[in-house]
């Protein structure tokens, strides 16, 4: 059984003492942000590893913190990607019975249709759009 020198190497950081910095809610230093905060700034982590941890609710909730200076701009989806996402959402928002597209996701797995088609509960006309129909005058 032969082993190469590469298999024996271990990635060790000589400056890491084994503790990961943890900060309580609203006590993180400037220059660090969560994913959601980066997203609000138009940024993404960009492949960097988290540098600290934000902990709140007595340790029940946790979020990773990333360096803002290493973050990259968000990728902008192409037109084809946006079209594909719209088709996927349309499949989840369109009632198969009445063909209305609602502004929210329908319970198609459990009910199989919108509430109006399922049990007659009237739907607010502001919550859906009518299916494309026939546009001829006659």
From TrEMBL:
InterPro entries: QRL_CxxC_CxxC. It comes from the Bacteria. NCBIfam families: QRL_CxxC_CxxC. This is RRQRL motif-containing zinc-binding protein.
């Amino acid at each position: 059984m032969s082993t190469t020198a590469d298999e024996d190497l271990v990635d060790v950081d000589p400056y890491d003492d084994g503790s990961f910095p943890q900060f309580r809610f609203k006590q993180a230093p400037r220059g660090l942000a969560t994913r959601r905060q980066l997203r609000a700034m138009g940024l993404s982590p960009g492949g960097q590893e988290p540098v600290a941890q934000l902990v709140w609710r007595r340790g029940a909730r946790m979020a990773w913190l990333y360096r803002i200076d290493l973050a990259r701009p968000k990728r902008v989806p192409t037109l084809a990607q946006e079209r594909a996402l719209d088709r996927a959402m349309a499949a989840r928002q369109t009632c198969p019975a009445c063909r209305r597209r609602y502004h929210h996701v329908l319970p198609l797995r459990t009910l199989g249709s919108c509430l109006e088609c399922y049990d007659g509960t009237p739907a607010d006309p502001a919550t859906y759009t009518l299916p494309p129909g026939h546009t001829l005058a006659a």
